[in-house]
UniProtKB/TrEMBL annotation:
Entry protein name: Transcriptional regulator
Gene3D superfamilies: Winged helix-like DNA-binding domain superfamily/Winged helix DNA-binding domain
SUPFAM superfamilies on file: Winged helix' DNA-binding domain (SSF46785)
Length: 94
């Protein structure tokens, strides 16, 4: 069994966690999230769909019709668990 977490997923969660810490009342546009995570839009959209389907992410349309995303409470709880350890998730214990 592979316990590794997809690096693309980690990149997205890292940036969304940062966004939640820096500006908790604001969602990020997909363009900003793509740029900050270093992921192409096609990969980002696949991951966003999966995160939304699992209830970890809220997606809301903006005035321009482009979605913006933010972590749900469940997503924040997961990120707190993942990133509070001081080690990168998926890399195993030292």
């Amino acid at each position: 069994m592979n316990d590794e977490i997809d690096p693309a997923l980690i990149a997205i969660l890292t940036q969304l966690w940062r966004a939640a810490e820096e500006s908790p009342a604001r969602a990020w546009s997909l363009a900003k999230l793509s740029k900050q995570s270093g992921l192409p839009m096609s990969s980002l959209r696949r991951q966003i769909t999966a995160l939304s389907d699992t209830g970890l992410l809220d997606t809301t349309p903006s005035d321009a019709g482009v979605p913006a995303v933010a972590l749900t409470d469940a997503g924040k709880d997961l990120c707190a668990q993942l990133f509070a350890r001081g080690t990168e998730p998926g890399l195993g214990e030292p």
